[in-house]
Structure to design on (227 residues):
């Protein structure tokens, strides 16, 4: 697609429920990132995919969080047993490749998925 | 020590002044550095990228990189009210892109 697409744009859920957030990166972008941004805060790194592999999962805050990517395209971030502190905007970004210094690693962000846990 | 550190601000400058935003990073192996701008309620968008020591100018924006000091800065000349936003410094260490917490800039008319 022309840009990074995320869905849903807004999700309100009850504490304890599972949620699934989806990211469609720009076609051909091999690198995909998930970040979390709480209200008034900076971007908190969650996970990075190069192709379908995730060499760095260190940012996932707990085992309730998981992510996968298939076909070097769509990625899904799943949060199980949601807690109120999970409320945030979840941003997905993609880039052409992880070629440092080439300019190809510029990120394009999606509009984000705003999650509210009641 | 955080991987990427920024002064959270807020930084307030009058219209027409120079705004100076600073960022330090911890990983000496980092090679790619970026400044993103984020308006309230919007997603970050790229302003500048810099990969070599020295200055890089693009219009009213100048990025400065000093790898020896692990320091990168952004200067905004002739600041406009439309520049009011949060500015995020981003660095690529070995694996992925890490962001600072951002500096909130307000340009007063």
């Amino acid at each position: 697609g022309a840009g990074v697409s995320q869905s849903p744009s807004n999700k309100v859920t009850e504490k304890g429920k599972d949620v699934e957030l989806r990211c469609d990166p720009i076609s051909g972008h091999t690198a995909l990132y998930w970040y979390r941004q709480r209200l008034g805060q900076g971007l908190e790194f969650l996970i990075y995919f190069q192709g379908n592999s995730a060499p760095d999962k260190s940012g996932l805050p707990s085992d309730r969080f998981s992510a996968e990517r298939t076909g070097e395209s769509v990625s899904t971030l799943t949060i199980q047993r949601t807690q109120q502190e999970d409320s945030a905007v979840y941003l997905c970004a993609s880039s052409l490749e992880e070629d440092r210094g080439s300019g190809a690693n510029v990120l394009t962000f999606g509009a984000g998925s705003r999650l509210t846990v009641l | 020590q955080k991987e990427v550190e920024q002064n959270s601000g807020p930084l307030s400058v009058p219209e027409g002044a120079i705004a100076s935003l600073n960022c330090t990073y911890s990983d000496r192996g980092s090679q790619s550095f970026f400044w993103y701008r984020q308006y309230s309620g919007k997603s970050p968008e790229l302003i500048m990228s810099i990969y070599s020591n020295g200055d890089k100018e693009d219009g009213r924006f100048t990025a400065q990189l000093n790898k020896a000091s692990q320091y990168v800065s952004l200067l905004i000349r002739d600041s406009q009210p439309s520049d009011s936003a949060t500015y995020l410094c981003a660095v690529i260490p070995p694996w992925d892109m890490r962001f600072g917490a951002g500096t909130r800039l307000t340009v007063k008319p």
